[in-house]
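Weekly structure sync, notes
Attendees: PL (lead), two postdocs, one rotation student
Agenda item 3: pending single-chain targets
PL asked that the sequence for the first pending target be pasted directly into the notes so everyone works from the same version. It is reproduced below exactly as submitted, 138 residues in total.
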Amino acid sequence: IGCDRNNNDGKNNKSSLEALRSAHGGKLPFEAPAGIIIGPADKNSFQKLVKPFRIFNERAFVSYGEIRRYIAMVDTNLFVYAEKSDPTPLYTIPFSDLIASKEDPNRPDFYSHTVSPEANVGLPFSNKTKGCLDTVLL
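Predicted structure, written out during the meeting:
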């Protein structure tokens, strides 16, 4: 799908949500707000060294509001917009060669982020993503 950089109104842009919907009979297979993070959480040498012992598992935290985007899945591409009304996507992610897996909140991936963490009530601290959010790793 092409992107007309000279037209910023979104009406004739081939990658605007309106144009994508029109090209697919008025409805896309999937579109919704989502938090998008590209790349793993940075870990320092100490965190990498003690990983096998699971004695220090400090997680990278991020607010959902900081990473909130609007996504649309079309064929084998994920279109990522800053807002639902944007005329062009920020970027696209081809996912034909990717495998999506839902992260287990009780056993998060070492390099994933904790999004909008739940409040800790007592010990041990859980460092879990808020219960109303699901994390999908690509």
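Discussion points:
- The beta strands are 30-35, 60-62, 68-74, 77-81, 91-94, 101-102, 113-115, 136-137.
- The longest strand covers residues 68-74.
Action: rotation student to compare against the earlier draft before next sync.
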